[in-house]
Amino acid sequence: MIVERNFAGVIIFSFSKKDCEVYAMQMAKLNSNTADEKKLVDEVFNNALDVLSKEGRQLPQVENGLPLLRRGIAIHHGELLPILKEIIEILFGEGLLKGFFATETFAVDLNMPARAVLFTGPREYIQIAFRAGRQGLDDKGIVILMIDGKVSPAVGRDIVQGKADPINLAFHLTYNQPPSS
After folding, report:
1. To the nearest whole percent, how much of the chain has pLDDT over 70?
2. Which of 152, 133, 135 is nearest to 144 (CA)?
3. Is 171 within a domain?
4. In a domain, 174, yes or no
5. Cα 111 to Cα 169: distance, rounded to the nearest angstrom
6. Residue 1 domain-assigned?
7. Is 3 a domain residue?
8. Which CATH number fits the domain that encloses residue 36?
9. Which residues form a coiled coil (predicted)?
10. Strand ranges of the sheet holding 142-145, from the earlier edge strand across to the other edge
11. What pLDDT is stored for residue 26 in this prediction?
12. Which pLDDT does position 70 carry in this prediction?
């Protein structure tokens, strides 16, 4: 659907590193970048890695990152090397990434709006959905929420309307309780 409707440049939020990796590998089969785009990805990637030692370049996340990036796919999570985060952010900003799989750490760390955002589940939807739509480039943002049949229509409506989950406190203060220091 993302490719068919030209929503490329989408950030797909998944709330575990493992899920991001699984979804990215599935999307990598599409091979979204042209030959010219792949050359640009190679150039950015190789220039940025000049700061890493030989051992640093041999880390699995470095060696496994380039094949995905060349296909227009990236994975962004809290355990990623800072230089790889920077490469991904540059490539995304230049439109060289068609699908960008991220955990919520991306939403907290950066302000990188996208044409569309997709959620693999309803968790933290309210806090992250605002990223859809690029100011000055898009007249609207696209938000896609993948939910299973277990979510009731009322819950789905509350999510889309921005209603937060209720806060249930486990601690109850009583008059007989001394103040803590």
Report:
1. 58
2. 133
3. no
4. no
5. 32
6. no
7. no
8. 3.40.50.300
9. none
10. 73-76, 99-102, 10-13, 116-119, 142-145
11. 84
12. 94
Beta bridge partners of 119: 13, 145
Distance CA 94, CA 40 (A): 10
Task: State the Cα–Cα distance between residues 134 and 115, nearest whole angstrom.
Answer: 6
Task: Report the SS3 class of residue 129.
Answer: helix
pTM: 0.67
Q: DSSP code of 180?
A: P
What is the span of the domain harbouring residue 95?
10-161
Residues of the chain with pLDDT under 50: 1, 3
How confident is the model at residue 39, as a pLDDT? 96
- pLDDT score of 103: 82
Are the CB atoms for 146 and 160 separated by under 8 Å? no
Quote the pLDDT of residue 17: 85
CA-CA distance, 28 to 54, in Å (whole number)? 27
Q: Which one-letter DSSP state was computed for residue 101? A: E
CA pair distance 63, 40, nearest whole angstrom: 17
Name the domain count of the chain.
1
Q: Is the dihedral of CA 150, 124, 130, 33 positive or negative?
A: negative
